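Researcher: Here's a chain I'd like modeled. Treat it as a single chain, no partners, no ligands.
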Amino acid sequence: MIDPDRHLNIGSLIFDGIDQIDLTGPFEVLARIPNSTYRLYGKTGGMIRDLKGLRITPDAAIAEAPQLDVLHIPGGFGQEALMEDEEVLSWIRAQAAGVHSLFSVCTGALVCGAAGLLKGRRATTHWASFHLLPFFGAIPVDQRVVVDGDWVFAAGVTAGIDGALRLVAELRGDAAAQAIQLYMAYAPEPPFNAGLPETAPPEILAELQALVAPVTAQREATARRVAERLGVTHDLGG
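Model: Modeled as a single isolated chain. Structure tokens:
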């Protein structure tokens, strides 16, 4: 736990094609951390749209960001463009060198991997891209939230809320996290047991796998190029 008298600078990277829940779920938690400042940073200071068209405006461009104490990297289909964007990757690497905690949600882990930050780290990501983690030298852990030292990785989408609460506990203690959870009335009772591949009805799983197959194939192609650049030896076959 960090000294509660130490002010924390917390920042989230946003980009076109982000999945807004990867951002806004953790935002609801992280923005309530005592004695902290939370800001959004984009490649430029311009407005972005999430993958369904929601407009989000950053507080500043990444070049204007101070050294952060906590860096949050969300995911979404737009993550693909960042994985070979050296300007963004260089910024992530520079921030990661000085942060106390890095927090990725969903396919934000793939962006971290493209920046070369996952080698030897335990990590997780969305179930549809989980098999790609070894391309970045990561140790895949099939859990909703994975903690590796001071870094926290959340699996798909809504897992970002769980990961953010876990991060608050690491930063400010369990009581602070519990107070935020209570304020949010976060006590999920999903109406269906269909939130994981192993519990969803087979026909629903097949439908979703077919829906994400094109982007998954694109992500694999990018992951293979990144693996070659990083010098990571891994093959899924084919």
